Automatic annotation (TrEMBL):
NCBIfam families: hypB. It holds the Pfam family cobW. Gene3D superfamilies: P-loop containing nucleotide triphosphate hydrolases. Belongs to the SIMIBI class G3E GTPase family. HypB/HupM subfamily. This is Hydrogenase maturation factor HypB. Residues 1-28 form a coiled coil. GO terms for biological process: protein maturation. The lineage of its organism: unclassified sequences, metagenomes, ecological metagenomes. Keywords: Coiled coil, GTP-binding, Hydrolase, Metal-binding, Nickel, Nucleotide-binding, Zinc. Residues 33-193 form the CobW/HypB/UreG nucleotide-binding domain. The keyword Manganese does not apply. GO terms for molecular function: GTP binding; GTPase activity; nickel cation binding; zinc ion binding.
Length: 222
């Protein structure tokens, strides 16, 4: 029987490019996150909330992944930071070669913090290394607390989970106890921030966390 394993080859190629990007980002001390989550979880809203806190002292840029539109990039642009829209034309995730190209269009000279908002999807983006320092997953109470066990690879790899729309908790049957039990059963070291982009709960703590990570990267303590 003839057989080829395409996914492995694709991922190896991706990892090779990601390695080169990572070297560049490391040499320039740019703390980079890969922001993941389902459509509507609040990825762009979280960015809109933290940008002002971060840019008080640091330079930030955003790569916005989307299938076809520039809607998210237009939201970020209003905050006067460097933003680049990457349209995948239907592909369900970003890959390292897209980031490699994007880096040519971003002013990386004085850049401290790079956010890559991935395509909204709880499956494919988990496998692709985009040369980030950490993966950050945004999930929200309106999605239900069963997502960690239903999409374990999405919860296994991130260092940080943002539980968004906490303002809606009372309106849903979201079971926090079960959620925490499930995510820690998948990833014991995961850090969780409960936030609301509506009431601003937890936004300061989340911003401070990123600021600390930016500082550590600059002093090369990772
Ligand atoms: N009630 C509530 N709505 C939110 C919150 N965060 C985002 N939303 C809404 O959720 C929808 C999707 O948000 P968006 O940031 O576009 O999600 P993305 O697709 O993950 O980037 C928008 O209508 C937001 O206004 C929140 O904390 N509370
Ligand atoms: Mg978005």
């Amino acid at each position: 029987m003839k057989r080829i394993t395409i996914e492995k080859d694709v991922l190896k190629n991706n990892n090779d490019i990601a390695k080169r990007n990572r070297e560049f980002l490391k040499n320039n001390n740019i703390f980079t996150i890969n922001l993941l989550g389902s459509p509507g979880a609040g990825k762009t809203s979280v960015l809109e909330k933290i940008i002002d806190n971060i840019t008080l002292n640091y330079n930030m840029a955003v790569i916005e992944g989307d299938l076809y539109t520039t809607k998210d990039a237009m939201r970020i642009e209003k905050h006067n930071i460097d933003v680049l829209q990457v349209n995948t034309g239907g592909a369900c995730h970003l890959d390292a070669s897209m980031i490699q190209k994007s880096l040519n269009y971003i002013n990386t000279q004085q850049l401290d913090f790079l956010v890559i908002e991935n395509i909204g999807n709880l499956v494919c983006p988990a496998s692709y290394d985009l040369s980030e320092d950490i993966k950050v997953l945004v999930t929200s109470v309106t999605e239900g607390n069963d997502k960690p066990l239903k999409y374990p690879s999405m919860f296994q790899r991130p260092s940080v989970v943002i539980l968004n729309k906490i303002d809606m908790l009372e309106l849903t049957d979201f079971d926090k106890e079960e959620f925490y039990k499930d995510i820690y059963s998948i990833n014991r070291d995961i850090k969780v921030f409960e936030i609301s982009c509506r009431s601003n709960e937890g936004i300061k703590e989340l911003s401070d966390y990123f600021i600390n990570r930016i500082k550590n990267k600059k002093s090369r303590q990772y």
